[in-house]
Amino acid sequence: MLRSPSRFLRSCVAAAAAGAVLAGCGTSSDDAAQGEAKPAARTEVTVEPIKAATELTDTKGAKVSLDEEPERIVCLFALCDDILTELGIIPAATNSAVLAHPGFLGEKKAKEVDVIPGGFIAPEVEAILSHKPDLVIGLGDTHGKLAPALKGATTFWAMQPATWEDSVGYLRDTAALTGRTAEGEKAEKTFRTKLAEAEKTPGDRTALIIYGSDENFGVATPETDVAASLFPKIAEYPWKSRGVEGSYSLEEILARDVDVLFVETMSFGDADGKLSEKLAKNPLWSKIPAVRNGDVHEVNSEVWAKGRGTRSLGIVLDEATAALR
């Protein structure tokens, strides 16, 4: 299974392409003439204003229409929880564990949010509707099948993020629909500023994100994994999607001389150990430079693999850049 930068000038170009405006990307003639070493200019990012709306075409082309601003929102996957947290909204109910992370609500407050039974794959429709939601947000390729059962009772919004740009788009769309435009702009600016700072001082070491619950691991690739989509501009990340049937072997990973390895252990049911510990049984594992040098980082999969939103990605950037230095 598969899931699903560079010097100063490059960071300026990348930010402009992403829609952010950077100030201080040039060198003044006075500075050049004096030949004095000046501190690096602080990256300044501006974002486009968000306009409140009750209907829109979202970042992926889907139409969403509401009678009024939603007050009760049920989240069926973690991007929804991430976005609502950024906007200062607590979901009426959730289907993920990301809210318990200290960067979100924390364990105590997260326990106050009802959990939809049935698990991520098959959340119970009756339980969803029992919360009388104005809006239900799910992952398109997993929860799209619920749309007919929810039709007429609530509005269902299927999101399908593949890159961090998609996640920012969904943040903006949700801010517009909920009227939390100032909060949305602030969250986007905070994330884009952090990303622009990371891009100014990219690492030259080879990084890799792998995920799984056992020896049959997957490689997170920038084309299909939101967290991985950040990496090409902050590290050497030579991993490309091979489609649904593609996979990478430990032999290939060993051949790429991976310097820093991030591991997402995906738990199903009772936790039964870390993925890195299971892979350690393979004799090739210990030969990978990251393993030999103690640069294997078990990360929180709720944030790295499932969060997908600007708050989660901010945490990913903090942890990744610290490890890549």
Describe the protein's architecture and organization.
By secondary structure, this protein is an alpha/beta fold. It has 2 domains: 55-194, Nitrogenase molybdenum iron protein domain (Rossmann fold), CATH 3.40.50; 207-324, Nitrogenase molybdenum iron protein domain (Rossmann fold, 3-Layer(aba) Sandwich). 35% of the residues lie in helices and 14% in strands. Strands 11-10-12-13 form a 4-stranded mixed beta sheet. Strand 10 (207-212) and strand 11 (218-219) form a beta hairpin. Helix 3 (78-86) packs across helix 8, helix 3 (78-86) crosses helix 13 (301-307) and helix 8 packs antiparallel against helix 9 (181-200). The protein is globular. Mean pLDDT is 88; it is low at 1-41.
Task: Please specify the SSE layout and strand pairing.
Elements: H1 8-17, E1 21-23, H2 29-34, E2 44-46, E3 55-57, E4 63-65, E5 73-75, H3 78-86, E6 93-94, H4 106-110, E7 114-115, H5 125-129, E8 135-139, H6 140-143, H7 147-150, E9 155-159, H8 164-178, H9 181-200, E10 207-212, E11 218-219, H10 250-255, E12 260-265, H11 275-279, H12 289-292, E13 296-299, H13 301-307, H14 310-324
Parallel strand pairs: 5-8, 6-7, 8-9, 10-12, 12-13
Antiparallel strand pairs: 1-2, 3-4, 10-11
Helix pairs in contact: 1-9, 3-8, 3-13, 8-9, 9-14
Share of helix among residues? 25-40%
Write the CATH architecture name of the largest domain: 3-Layer(aba) Sandwich
Give the low-confidence spans: 1-41
Question: Largest sheet, order of strands side by side?
Answer: 11-10-12-13
Q: How does the overall form come out from the CA principal axes?
A: globular
Percentage of β-strand residues: 5-15%
For the record, the CATH class of the largest domain is Alpha Beta
**Class based on secondary structure composition and strand pairing:** alpha/beta
